[in-house]
Amino acid sequence: MLNQKLKASLSVGFVGCCFAIGFGASLLTKFEAQRLQKNEIVKTATASLESREKRISATKKQNAAKSITIKAVGDVIPGTNYPHYRLPADRNQLIPKPVRAYLSEADVLFGNFETTLTKHRYSAKDVSRGQVFAFRSPPEYAKLFSDVGFDVFNIANNHARDFGMVGFNDTMKNLENAGIETLGHKNQILFLEKNNNKIAMIGFAP
């Protein structure tokens, strides 16, 4: 009888111990799951915050990139060799270094190009009349203006065809080869993009 009671007591104790261990393990598993879940929430929240901060930073950079500087100069006539030679000994003297430094700060540099870049011999104008001028500059001057940083030259003016269509086409070709856009052609709208900004330009003359 005593032996049976001892066995029953041991059996109950064993079951109770197993239950305690099982219950404890169950609690640990539950707490571990909660901890993991909290970690995942924290990770997700952190990733979301970092993503948001990156988007804000990218937006700020994009907005900052929308700031542009446009500079423009008036009539550009770098001397003429027609009908008499009136060019500087050194073409670099035309635009001194301090002026170049100032112009180089522009995102878009524009000028009104009141001459031709051609070797065509015949002018469309009668320069023998008083106050009638035909300007012809050497084609290699195109590189001078490219080096300075000019982006666009307007050619809608009273000197663009000083040497007829031959001189006009030569001028367009030489400027294009130097990487300078020309503005002022009939029905033309020139589109540029600088610092994520789209710019439309027109040029016209009477």
How would you sum up this structure in a few lines?
The N and C termini lie far apart (128 Å).
Q: How would you describe this protein?
A:
The structure is a single chain. With 206 residues, the protein is of the alpha/beta class. The chain has two domains: 1-65; 70-201, no CATH class. Helices cover 45% and strands 14% of the residues. It has four helices and six strands; from the N terminus they run H-E-H-E-H-E-H-E-E-E. Strands 1-2-3-4 form a four-stranded parallel sheet, covered by helices on one side. Strands 5-6 form a two-stranded antiparallel sheet. Helix 2 links the parallel strand 1 and strand 2. The mean pLDDT is 86.
Summarize model confidence as the mean pLDDT: 86
Terminal-residue CA separation: 128 Å
| Topology order in helix (H) and strand (E) letters | HEHEHEHEEE
The dominant shape is: rod-shaped
Going across the major beta sheet, what is the strand order? Answer: 1-2-3-4
- Rg, rounded, reads 40 Å
Strand-helix topology:
Blueprint: H1 2-65, E1 70-76, H2 97-103, E2 108-113, H3 141-148, E3 152-154, H4 164-177, E4 181-183, E5 190-194, E6 197-201
Parallel strand pairs: 1-2, 2-3, 3-4
Antiparallel strand pairs: 5-6
